[in-house]
Prior knowledge:
By secondary structure, the protein is of the alpha+beta class. The protein has helices at residues 2-8, 76-86, 145-155, 191-196, 206-210, 262-270, 281-290, 321-329, 333-341, 343-348, 388-397, 416-431, 443-448, 471-478, 491-501, 506-523, 555-558, and strands at residues 29-31, 54-59, 91-93, 106-108, 111-116, 121-126, 169-176, 179-184, 225-231, 235-240, 254-259, 276-279, 295-300, 304-309, 405-410, 436-441, 459-464, 526-529, 535-540, 544-545, 564-565. The chain has two domains: 2-282 and 536-565, 3-Layer(aba) Sandwich (D-Maltodextrin-Binding Protein, domain 2); 304-529, Roll (Dipeptide-binding Protein, domain 3), CATH 3.10.105.
Amino acid sequence: MLRRAAFGLAGLAGASLVGCASDEGGVTVTTSTPTPTGTPGPATTAAAPRFDGTLRLHLGAPPASLDPYAGVAGGAFTSRTIAGHLYSRLFRVASEPDRDPWSTGTASDLAGGLETQDGQVWTVTLRGGARFHDVPPVSGRDVTAEDVVASVERLKAVDSPGAALVTHWSQVLAVDDRTVRFTLAAPSAAFPDELADIDRLLVLPREAIEGGIDITSTPVGSGPWVLDEYDPETRFRLRANPALSPEAAPLLPALEYAFLDDDAALARFRAGDLHALPLRSDAVLPLRGEQREVQWRGHVSPLLSFLYFSGEEAEAPWRDERFRQAVSLLQDRDALTQAAYNLSAFRDVGLDAPVRWNNLVPAGFTRWWLDPTSGDQGDSGRFFVHDPAEARRLLEASGYAGAPIPFLLPAEVYGATFDTVADALVVSAAAVGLNLVPQRQDFASEYVARTFRGDFTGIAFGYQSAFTEVGEYLTRMFGPGDTNHGRVGDAVIDDLVERQAVALDEGERRSLIHEVQRRNAGRMYYVPSQAGTGLLWTAYHPQLRGIRQTRGAGAGAEVNPFLSVEA
Length: 567
């Protein structure tokens, strides 16, 4: 499940995640096709995609429901992917050609303007000319503020999977046909990103909510694509919305998603029957060797792995920050990344494979990430450097004398890459005199239920969710409650977290978030590690043009309308 979610982020239909525009460069790997070396298998020419005016992609399974607000389990990702083609949002992710999708901000969708004086009351003005699909009883009428309000009410309903994300949207009112006023429980700099998040607000016609149309069988939105054909066993076919202006309409007239497992999708791509394919890492090199004309795009995964320390034992050695600093210094982050992801093999075949080190914000979230190797990290950057001698000295200075320490890990869920890094951490710790005793825990009943919620003794290692909104890393990991995994209390960080939450200027907010990362690095309340920093790859046939990527399930509006195929 985690692997599917991870590599989906690199493709045309990424795994449910999101975020006012930033002018920072990203770490996207954009690679043409230099001659590979050391490539397995005979090289062949990529099969020409079968092209009849239809862009051909795939999903691993059909959507569990065509209602994007249905409270379904297990199928929410595919449901949202399809919904992203059919329904509009007020804003969307600002995808750009050959740009790291985790470095961009938001772009207008239905909204023509967004204003606030205090970050708590926000006014959205709808752009003119937006119409729903020409399907009765909606029949191509204008999108109005009442549709937005009705959609928010549906989003907040008890059976909506996104209801928990918008409990702080206290009041939403239609001021007039084209103006909506949102009042939040507290000021929030993250609100524009929330409006772009496909896991939150999709705008449905009010008839779909009031009972005039059944969107489980006849989905009607105002998005760039219109439902053409749906066979839940085989495929989902869409056509470009004919009501859109030529400037806004998709470049290709039709799009088709086939429902295929990984192996079947790879076979179809090899045969030229799919135009793009997100790939597992172990499938990249063989395909690279077989079809050298294939285009490749990759970006660093936005997944954070970290070590954390139990917070209840006042006399535990890790209460001393020198102990925690030593845990960071014992890590050879470049070697860990190579061991986990074999990046040199990708470089050997001409694919750029950079190493990025996780900070408290993961390396893939480039819009807010502070590079630990940069001068901007300041003095705390020294605690990311591999220095076994200093690690041993700090352990001794902290009073640690070699006693065994439980090292808690989730069992049989995160896969070989995570396990490789975990095993290497135990070995590296032993080399500096730190005696970690691995204890594998059942994921659901022990690790998630207790350890991840801070109810444990010792040191734990795991992944943090890949949050769309950067503030969630800060409020969860340092705020009150059981998402503060190490029961960390730091008044300076608390103040920074509160200030970034209401900093409406993005540059100011970024500075505050960087300062949180510096403060954490100096004291290593949470010690970042390198599981999760691999590259997510997507292969594209040579004829595909206008390639761009996104970080959520909103490819229908953020990626696919811009694609074309060169004959």
